[in-house]
């Protein structure tokens, strides 16, 4: 090999000895592996924390609609890719969210167990009082009917049968079934079939209904609402994976002549990155100290203002049209798409926690 040439360790390309970087693959020549190099390569490869991130972060915050516009125009090497920016900020958000909510499952379980104990005591007390009042009320009713024969001739045996009707003054149960009876069956180690029958499940119930009743029984026994909440938190990234394309679809419906679906998806990536940044600030501040609700409201309101300005700049329409579409899109997303996704997420968490 020529003494004035050296070989790239990555791609074996022949390059001059004074080259610091390989012109073929871009790797630094003869770079020693240190902890600093290892850490930087890991971060830069997965999150692209380099000059492009710094060039992208400030426009993301202070120039709504700027980054998607430049990306569509073809300036894609100067700024961070929308999916990479979304990934990096979302990882930061979920890290802060985990710090803010890591104690919530345990608190919920403690509250549910406390509520269960107080409910049992209340039901027992109500049952005792009901039996005491029941004997007095029935005696008074029986005496009233006997002393008022002018109301009609009612045989004494008929009076007793009417007043002994178990459906008279029947207590309502919050779970939809007799909890005391269910507790006795559970204490007696009754089979699931007997317990489900006490819960008024039909014998011909399908798989989904049986699964639902099984989870109700599981929750009734353990009051483990914390596990449900944990599943919900774990599945939020997957839910957002579907929410972002749906949001882009809404944009496509309202701006059908303003580019193809990919253009709206680019806009959505950058806007959701900004939303994650706002929520990271909100959860981060409340993690350190509890602030008044007006600050949270102000930050959330800024997300709408940002959305309005971004729509105007990216789609090049007037303020009135942009304001109208921003309100309608936000309404449809918050009232229909987001609640539907949250409901599906909760049902999934309940069925598989």
TrEMBL record:
The keyword 4Fe-4S does not apply. Keywords: Membrane, Transmembrane, Transmembrane helix. This is DUF3667 domain-containing protein. It comes from the Bacteria. The chain crosses the membrane at residues 85-103, 236-255, 267-289, 295-315, 327-351.
